[in-house]
Design a protein that fits this description.
5 helices; Beta-Lactamase; alpha+beta
Length: 164
């Protein structure tokens, strides 16, 4: 019932408070941590399962443990954003935001909470709030060629407008 209520709030554009996030343990939470060098030091079982289902072997723990989190981010702006958030968290601040993480056949809305652990690591907790099945979008398939160009999408009709 609570999950359905959260979905209705999201559809209405309501802001979900952090108190709701902390009391809904049944929602999928992907957890990973980085050390002082921004290297991935641990991931939880849900993260492993999600990576296996969405990234294939490249996302499995043996492939990511010890790797630099920032190196896994493809564009410069997002790298700078994550570095800024990590700096804030290391100075004892908490960062929270919502983001989309779509699959070819799913639209997904996550919330991210980034905190500093007592041991000094930075912990990232991504909680899945909403997932909708849709007709598969081929350009989101992992085997499709990539470029630095952006694909603009009309918010109203969801139609792509390519500009290169």
């Amino acid at each position: 019932m609570l999950h359905g209520l959260l979905n209705r709030f999201l559809k209405l554009g309501c802001v979900i408070t952090t108190s709701l996030i902390s009391t809904t343990e049944q929602l999928l939470s992907l957890v990973y941590r980085i050390d002082a060098k921004n290297q991935i030091s641990s991931v939880n079982e849900a993260w492993k399962k999600f990576a296996s289902e969405n990234s294939g072997d490249a996302g499995l723990p043996g492939e990511v443990w010890g790797s630099d989190l920032i190196d896994s981010i493809s564009d410069h702006t997002t790298k700078e954003l994550y570095l800024s958030m990590i700096r804030q968290v290391r100075q004892e601040h908490q960062v929270e935001f919502q983001y989309r993480c779509d699959a070819p056949d799913k639209r997904r809305l996550f919330s991210m909470r980034i905190t500093r652990t007592p041991g000094g690591e930075v912990e990232f907790v991504s909680t899945l709030w909403n997932e909708k099945i849709r007709r598969s979008v081929s350009c989101l398939e992992s085997d499709q060629p990539r470029s630095d160009a952006f694909l603009r999408v009309c918010r109203g009709c969801q139609q792509g407008m390519a500009r290169f």
